[in-house]
Amino acid sequence: MSGPPYVQTPVRLSDLTAEARIRNAALEGFAANGIAKTSIRDVAAAAGVSPGLVQHHFGTKAGLRDAVNAHVISLAMDTFRDLVEGGDSAEALTGIGDRVTAFVHDNATAVRYIARALLEGDAEAIKLFDALVEIALERWLAPTASDGALHRDVDFEWAAMHVVLFNLATLLFEDAINRHLPAPLFTPEQLQRWNRATTDLYRRGLYERTGSKRKR
Does pLDDT of 138 surpass 90? Predict the structure, then answer.
Protein backbone atom coordinates (compact mmCIF):
# COMPACT_ATOMS: atom_id res chain seq x y z
CA MET A 1 0.00 0.00 0.00
CA SER A 2 1.13 3.51 -0.64
CA GLY A 3 0.24 4.73 2.85
CA PRO A 4 -0.71 8.21 3.99
CA PRO A 5 1.43 11.26 3.35
CA TYR A 6 3.40 11.81 6.55
CA VAL A 7 4.12 15.45 5.71
CA GLN A 8 2.05 18.16 7.30
CA THR A 9 2.19 21.76 6.14
CA PRO A 10 3.58 23.73 9.10
CA VAL A 11 1.52 26.53 10.58
CA ARG A 12 3.48 29.70 11.23
CA LEU A 13 3.16 31.11 14.74
CA SER A 14 2.31 34.48 13.23
CA ASP A 15 -0.76 32.90 11.60
CA LEU A 16 -2.18 31.80 14.95
CA THR A 17 -4.23 33.96 17.27
CA ALA A 18 -2.85 34.67 20.72
CA GLU A 19 -5.48 32.33 22.15
CA ALA A 20 -4.40 29.49 19.84
CA ARG A 21 -0.72 30.08 20.61
CA ILE A 22 -1.44 29.90 24.33
CA ARG A 23 -3.50 26.73 23.93
CA ASN A 24 -0.79 25.07 21.83
CA ALA A 25 1.92 26.09 24.30
CA ALA A 26 -0.16 24.56 27.09
CA LEU A 27 -0.57 21.35 25.11
CA GLU A 28 3.19 21.14 24.57
CA GLY A 29 3.91 21.83 28.24
CA PHE A 30 1.28 19.41 29.54
CA ALA A 31 2.57 16.66 27.22
CA ALA A 32 6.22 17.19 28.15
CA ASN A 33 6.00 17.95 31.87
CA GLY A 34 2.49 17.06 33.02
CA ILE A 35 -0.39 19.32 33.97
CA ALA A 36 0.59 19.67 37.63
CA LYS A 37 4.15 20.76 36.82
CA THR A 38 3.20 23.24 34.10
CA SER A 39 2.26 26.67 35.43
CA ILE A 40 0.41 29.52 33.76
CA ARG A 41 3.70 31.42 33.84
CA ASP A 42 5.40 28.54 31.98
CA VAL A 43 2.69 28.56 29.33
CA ALA A 44 2.85 32.33 28.96
CA ALA A 45 6.63 32.23 28.46
CA ALA A 46 6.36 29.49 25.85
CA ALA A 47 3.61 31.36 23.99
CA GLY A 48 5.45 34.69 24.17
CA VAL A 49 2.67 36.46 26.06
CA SER A 50 2.09 37.73 29.59
CA PRO A 51 0.55 35.55 32.33
CA GLY A 52 -2.24 38.11 32.48
CA LEU A 53 -3.18 37.43 28.86
CA VAL A 54 -3.35 33.70 29.58
CA GLN A 55 -5.75 34.42 32.44
CA HIS A 56 -7.70 36.84 30.26
CA HIS A 57 -8.41 34.12 27.69
CA PHE A 58 -8.70 31.06 29.94
CA GLY A 59 -9.16 32.25 33.52
CA THR A 60 -7.42 29.46 35.41
CA LYS A 61 -5.17 26.53 34.60
CA ALA A 62 -8.25 24.32 34.77
CA GLY A 63 -9.85 26.48 32.08
CA LEU A 64 -6.70 26.18 30.01
CA ARG A 65 -6.71 22.42 30.42
CA ASP A 66 -10.37 22.28 29.34
CA ALA A 67 -9.51 24.26 26.20
CA VAL A 68 -6.67 21.86 25.43
CA ASN A 69 -8.99 18.89 25.91
CA ALA A 70 -11.61 20.38 23.60
CA HIS A 71 -8.93 20.99 20.98
CA VAL A 72 -7.65 17.41 21.18
CA ILE A 73 -11.15 15.97 20.79
CA SER A 74 -11.82 18.29 17.87
CA LEU A 75 -8.68 17.00 16.13
CA ALA A 76 -9.81 13.40 16.61
CA MET A 77 -13.38 14.08 15.48
CA ASP A 78 -12.20 15.83 12.33
CA THR A 79 -9.72 13.07 11.49
CA PHE A 80 -12.09 10.14 12.00
CA ARG A 81 -15.25 11.62 10.49
CA ASP A 82 -16.76 9.11 8.03
CA LEU A 83 -14.12 6.58 8.98
CA VAL A 84 -15.84 3.61 7.33
CA GLU A 85 -17.42 4.26 3.96
CA GLY A 86 -18.30 0.77 2.83
CA GLY A 87 -16.51 -1.26 0.18
CA ASP A 88 -14.16 -4.19 0.66
CA SER A 89 -13.59 -4.82 4.37
CA ALA A 90 -9.85 -5.49 3.93
CA GLU A 91 -9.41 -2.22 2.05
CA ALA A 92 -11.50 -0.41 4.67
CA LEU A 93 -9.29 -1.77 7.47
CA THR A 94 -6.17 -0.66 5.61
CA GLY A 95 -7.70 2.79 5.22
CA ILE A 96 -8.45 2.94 8.93
CA GLY A 97 -4.86 1.98 9.73
CA ASP A 98 -3.56 4.66 7.40
CA ARG A 99 -5.73 7.31 9.00
CA VAL A 100 -4.84 6.30 12.56
CA THR A 101 -1.13 6.31 11.72
CA ALA A 102 -1.39 9.71 10.07
CA PHE A 103 -3.28 11.06 13.09
CA VAL A 104 -0.62 9.81 15.51
CA HIS A 105 2.12 11.28 13.32
CA ASP A 106 0.47 14.66 12.86
CA ASN A 107 -0.79 14.93 16.43
CA ALA A 108 1.89 13.12 18.43
CA THR A 109 1.95 15.82 21.11
CA ALA A 110 -1.80 15.50 21.63
CA VAL A 111 -1.58 11.72 21.98
CA ARG A 112 1.38 12.01 24.37
CA TYR A 113 -0.61 14.50 26.41
CA ILE A 114 -3.58 12.14 26.75
CA ALA A 115 -1.35 9.23 27.76
CA ARG A 116 0.57 11.27 30.33
CA ALA A 117 -2.55 12.87 31.81
CA LEU A 118 -4.17 9.45 32.20
CA LEU A 119 -1.10 8.13 34.00
CA GLU A 120 -1.21 11.14 36.32
CA GLY A 121 -4.82 10.32 37.14
CA ASP A 122 -6.25 13.57 35.80
CA ALA A 123 -10.04 13.26 35.98
CA GLU A 124 -10.63 15.30 32.84
CA ALA A 125 -8.20 13.15 30.87
CA ILE A 126 -10.45 10.18 31.58
CA LYS A 127 -13.16 12.02 29.64
CA LEU A 128 -10.74 12.25 26.72
CA PHE A 129 -10.25 8.49 26.88
CA ASP A 130 -14.02 8.02 26.95
CA ALA A 131 -14.42 10.24 23.88
CA LEU A 132 -11.78 8.32 21.92
CA VAL A 133 -13.40 5.00 22.80
CA GLU A 134 -16.75 6.40 21.65
CA ILE A 135 -15.20 7.46 18.34
CA ALA A 136 -13.81 3.94 17.85
CA LEU A 137 -17.19 2.40 18.64
CA GLU A 138 -19.41 4.70 16.61
CA ARG A 139 -17.18 5.51 13.65
CA TRP A 140 -15.37 2.22 13.12
CA LEU A 141 -16.85 -0.80 14.88
CA ALA A 142 -20.57 -0.07 14.48
CA PRO A 143 -20.40 0.65 10.71
CA THR A 144 -18.07 -2.30 10.14
CA ALA A 145 -20.39 -4.62 12.06
CA SER A 146 -23.39 -3.43 10.07
CA ASP A 147 -21.55 -4.42 6.88
CA GLY A 148 -21.11 -7.95 8.27
CA ALA A 149 -17.31 -7.71 8.36
CA LEU A 150 -16.89 -8.54 12.06
CA HIS A 151 -17.31 -11.78 13.97
CA ARG A 152 -20.71 -11.93 15.62
CA ASP A 153 -19.22 -12.51 19.07
CA VAL A 154 -16.86 -9.51 19.05
CA ASP A 155 -16.64 -7.74 22.41
CA PHE A 156 -17.25 -4.22 21.13
CA GLU A 157 -16.25 -2.41 24.31
CA TRP A 158 -12.88 -4.13 24.55
CA ALA A 159 -12.28 -3.88 20.80
CA ALA A 160 -12.77 -0.10 20.99
CA MET A 161 -10.58 0.21 24.07
CA HIS A 162 -7.85 -1.89 22.45
CA VAL A 163 -7.69 0.53 19.52
CA VAL A 164 -7.23 3.49 21.86
CA LEU A 165 -4.82 1.68 24.19
CA PHE A 166 -2.60 0.43 21.37
CA ASN A 167 -2.08 3.96 20.10
CA LEU A 168 -1.66 5.65 23.48
CA ALA A 169 0.78 2.98 24.66
CA THR A 170 2.84 3.25 21.49
CA LEU A 171 3.44 6.94 22.15
CA LEU A 172 3.87 6.47 25.88
CA PHE A 173 6.55 3.82 25.39
CA GLU A 174 8.13 5.44 22.36
CA ASP A 175 11.64 5.52 23.86
CA ALA A 176 11.49 1.85 24.81
CA ILE A 177 10.05 0.88 21.42
CA ASN A 178 12.83 2.74 19.62
CA ARG A 179 15.36 0.41 21.28
CA HIS A 180 13.90 -2.45 19.24
CA LEU A 181 13.66 -0.68 15.89
CA PRO A 182 16.39 -0.01 13.30
CA ALA A 183 15.27 3.65 13.10
CA PRO A 184 13.09 5.93 15.26
CA LEU A 185 9.38 5.16 15.30
CA PHE A 186 8.46 8.46 13.69
CA THR A 187 10.45 7.88 10.52
CA PRO A 188 8.08 7.16 7.60
CA GLU A 189 9.39 3.60 7.17
CA GLN A 190 8.85 2.66 10.81
CA LEU A 191 5.42 4.27 10.93
CA GLN A 192 4.45 2.20 7.92
CA ARG A 193 5.86 -0.92 9.60
CA TRP A 194 3.78 -0.20 12.72
CA ASN A 195 0.75 0.41 10.51
CA ARG A 196 1.15 -2.90 8.68
CA ALA A 197 1.78 -4.91 11.84
CA THR A 198 -1.22 -3.46 13.64
CA THR A 199 -3.51 -3.83 10.62
CA ASP A 200 -2.44 -7.45 10.20
CA LEU A 201 -3.07 -8.09 13.88
CA TYR A 202 -6.70 -7.01 13.43
CA ARG A 203 -7.17 -8.58 10.03
CA ARG A 204 -5.52 -11.97 10.58
CA GLY A 205 -4.51 -12.33 14.21
CA LEU A 206 -1.36 -14.16 15.25
CA TYR A 207 -2.49 -17.78 15.21
CA GLU A 208 -3.49 -20.13 12.45
CA ARG A 209 -7.17 -20.97 12.28
CA THR A 210 -8.49 -23.23 15.03
CA GLY A 211 -8.02 -26.85 14.12
CA SER A 212 -5.17 -26.31 11.69
CA LYS A 213 -1.95 -28.16 12.33
CA ARG A 214 1.58 -26.88 11.90
CA LYS A 215 3.35 -28.55 9.04
CA ARG A 216 6.32 -30.56 10.14
Answer: no
